[in-house]
């Protein structure tokens, strides 16, 4: 096993990512054996619907966790973006392109707010993200007058936005999501933004003493997250059409679980976009598998919780060995 771990190819790809990919394949095989309907292409497309919006949430929160922070508001903020943009579309006749922009801008504003409060006011990330969660729920409910919002169907005027997810049976959303994942990986691993964000998670005080404006870079991580959450809202409604006020909490933990499972350290300083992508695929496959088998969805919550505990345990053990 040690020889395998130390081989050049494994080191380049990453042992954890290889292990995650094998877990993903094994899960699919097990679900397919138990329920042959899982082999149907339609079932795969259904699972991918979950990947798109959850993937953007996970990409965004990866940047935040890399700084050593956390954001528990991403799910409700995503719903807030979709509700405000959708209500503007339906009630005020806002054109579809502008509605999509509104969704992204709402996410951007929440990202700026969270980042500013954490970086410049030194509010603990846990506290400000919880506050933002309630603000997002309240703002969406007030704006929509507690009404659910349905975005246009594919055949209706403006329904072209649904082609962001699927054209015929081709999963366009997967291509877009992977393209964004590549961009995020480049930003995190090959640019000054990414280097500073990871450095903040490793040793924020040392970075500050070196003369770097740590507040600016910490805020940027939250702004990136908020913007991606606004994009996630578009993919959510493109897949599921209807959004209700007061929801979204359940997606916080799933998005964070995808990050942690993929190798992003909760302590900060270490993040993997490719690992996050595989983690999201595992969460989506688990959700679809439980649905296909007719098992109570609460079991998915239990399994996801166990996965997070195991992932955090290995993260802590790995850091102890390095130290």
From TrEMBL:
The chain crosses the membrane at residues 18-38, 50-70, 77-94, 100-123, 170-188, 219-243, 255-286, 298-316. The keyword Cell membrane applies. InterPro entries: ABC_transp_permease (IPR001851). It is found in: Cell membrane. Pfam families: BPD_transp_2 (PF02653). Keywords: Cell membrane, Membrane, Transmembrane, Transmembrane helix. It comes from the Bacteria. GO terms for molecular function: transmembrane transporter activity. It is a multi-pass membrane protein. One of its GO terms (cellular component) is plasma membrane. The keyword Cell membrane applies. CDD domains: TM_PBP1_transp_AraH_like. This is ABC transporter permease. It comes from Candidatus Limivivens merdigallinarum.
């Amino acid at each position: 096993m040690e020889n395998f771990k130390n081989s050049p190819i494994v080191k380049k790809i990453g042992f954890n990512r290889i292990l995650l990919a094998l877990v993903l394949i094994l899960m699919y095989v097990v679900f397919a054996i138990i329920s042959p309907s899982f082999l149907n292409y339609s079932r795969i497309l259904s699972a991918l619907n979950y990947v798109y919006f959850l993937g953007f949430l996970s990409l965004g929160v990866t940047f935040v966790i890399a700084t050593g922070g956390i954001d528990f508001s991403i799910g409700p903020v995503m719903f807030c973006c979709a509700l405000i943009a959708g209500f503007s579309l339906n009630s005020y006749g806002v054109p579809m392109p502008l509605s999509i922009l509104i969704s992204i801008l709402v996410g951007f504003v929440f990202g700026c707010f969270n980042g500013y409060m954490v970086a410049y006011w030194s509010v603990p990330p846990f506290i400000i993200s919880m506050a933002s969660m309630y603000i997002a729920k309240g703002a969406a409910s007030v704006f929509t007058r507690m009404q659910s919002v349905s975005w246009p169907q594919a055949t209706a005027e403006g329904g072209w936005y649904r082609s962001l997810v699927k054209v015929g049976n081709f999963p366009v959303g997967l291509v877009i999501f992977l393209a964004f994942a590549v961009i995020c990986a480049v930003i995190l691993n090959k640019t000054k933004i990414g280097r500073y964000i990871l450095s903040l998670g490793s040793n924020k005080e040392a970075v500050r003493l070196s003369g770097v404006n740590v507040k600016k870079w910490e805020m940027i991580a939250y702004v990136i997250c908020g913007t991606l959450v606004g994009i996630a809202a578009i993919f959510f409604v493109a897949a599921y059409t209807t959004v209700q006020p007061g929801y979204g909490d359940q997606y916080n933990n799933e998005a964070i679980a995808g990050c942690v499972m993929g190798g992003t350290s909760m302590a900060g300083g270490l993040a993997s976009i490719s690992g996050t992508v595989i983690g999201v695929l595992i969460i989506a496959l688990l959700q679809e598998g439980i649905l296909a088998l007719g098992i109570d969805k609460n079991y998915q919550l239990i399994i996801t919780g166990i996965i997070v505990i195991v992932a955090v345990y290995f993260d802590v053990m790995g850091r102890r060995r390095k130290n």
